[in-house]
Amino acid sequence: MPPAIAEVFTNIGGGVLNSINEIRIRRNKPIIIYVKDVLYFITINSRLVSSINNQCVLINDDDFDFISDRLCNHSYHTNMEGMINGYITAKNGSRIGIAASAVKKDGRITCVKDISSLCIRIAHEHKNCSRKVLNSIYIDKFPSIIVAGPPGSGKTTFLRDMAFLLSNGFNGKYRRVAVVDERRELTSGFITGVNTDALIGFDKAKGIEMAARTLSPEIIMCDEIGNNTELEAIRYSFSTGCRFAVSVHMQDAAQIFTNKIVQELIKTNEFNYIVLLKSYTDDYEIIDISEERIENGRNNNDYPFFIFPWGNGGRI
Length: 316
Fold this sequence. Notes:
Helix content: 25-40%
Number of strands: 18
């Protein structure tokens, strides 16, 4: 941030400052921040208000260019590939979504220009946030899981912590973990464990294939599976004997039947559970999707999955 705006943020106070999930910055518009899922404007005297007034901090063109230049580490060229895909990744793993104008050549986007908005999603480390799930399903077996949830539910944070715990001796075993980190969100600025290998910046499909072929992992982890090429890489890698922990966007358990990516992952017959996280809480559900249970359930009812609901690690 420019010094004057940085001072406004500093004076908010550490308790609130450390709770910010997103900062929305738009040219010639007021700064908007989110604490969990609650929207606030920030005033020039560092107060958070729920409606706009003439004391709210506005971002002019110079401020905006200063911030975007710093986020790109003074090099738009080296960040252009990510920007074409709509984001920049900061050094600490925070992802910055961008709104801009596309520049095309021969029908292909070659660069972007006129950046107008920055959506800064703050990466947080939440140690041991996956431990209760591991204690539930990883003590006596080593399953493959789908980590699902809506935006803001902590899927990336969960996977990062899971990689750390499994590779650092959970349940007395130092598992070989391979993290495929296409957008540098899982590993940047974080410790991922003593027995973790990270493939950073590779397309997920290529990274998954490389991990399975060359690193002999017991489990491969990657964020936001979203296309058929990635699904094919997962299918191939299962044939090598490794397990997976992957994340997908999913609002609730009912979307198991309508989310095409989840359906394709289930059809591999290799995933055992969906861990469904809830937005801005520690609540989650563990959904058993083993093939035997699905087949038996289809014969008996319209909702074939067995769900273990948990809230903060306790039954709800």
